[in-house]
Request: fold
Amino acid sequence: MRPYATMHSLPASLLTSYAAILCDLDGCLISGDHVYPGVHEFAALNGERLWIVSNNSSDTAATLSLRLAALDLAIAPERIVLAGEQAVRRLAAERPSAKVAIHAEPPIQALAEELGLVESAHLPEWVLLARDTRLNLPRLAAVLAQIEAGAALFVTNLDTAHPDPEGLPVPETGALLAALRACKTDLSFRSIGKPAPDLIEIALGRAGAVPGEAVFIGDNVTTDGEAARVAGVDFIHLRSSHLALSRLPLGEEKPAVLDGARRAAC
Reply:
């Protein structure tokens, strides 16, 4: 079966048997404030079956839901599972009132404060690294100093980039992590984002679905496909939607739907 370039080219019949449809965000549904072809129809058709599962580490579910509403995509916060928010929630549940150095955008910082984490740049117990557009070289040096002083590192996700509307890479949290690892080669950390299965498992729990009843739609076999494989759900490889915008060739075809046995090859 050929890969699918956009949601518009994804047959609705392919999804009819699933109780829960989990979908990546950037590169599949939107890029910035651009909605990819067929996405409005896809969201309207699948309604309450649709769950966003994304390595986005700049938004919370609430802020992303508002941003999507402005693009005429009505997806409730309860059906949005994001790496940045879930990292904060996991940390707050495991280490309540912990001192944390938070390197993230304002929505993530506000959520951490709301959940009782104590933001502290001086001798923190944890360093939380998310996508932070203000993280320049002096601030990277501060992160390294905090880690050297004994803070444990929690990285929201490992994605190095996501595509803009023209298909050009936008640096992500993984790019910041790569800079840290270039300076400290023995860096240890934990992460909740894909390719770990945590976000998918959270979405399945909210949906009340078992893995065999769900499918994951993503544009990145390395992160989306691997997370689906580990979680035990079917995976549909949506070839990056920006191809339809920049009119790049699709290239060599790959299988679009991977069952449990074939997913292991991803």
Summary: The longest strand covers residues 50-54. The radius of gyration is 18 Å. DSSP finds ten helices and 15 strands in the chain. Residues 169 and 199 are 23 Å apart (CA to CA).
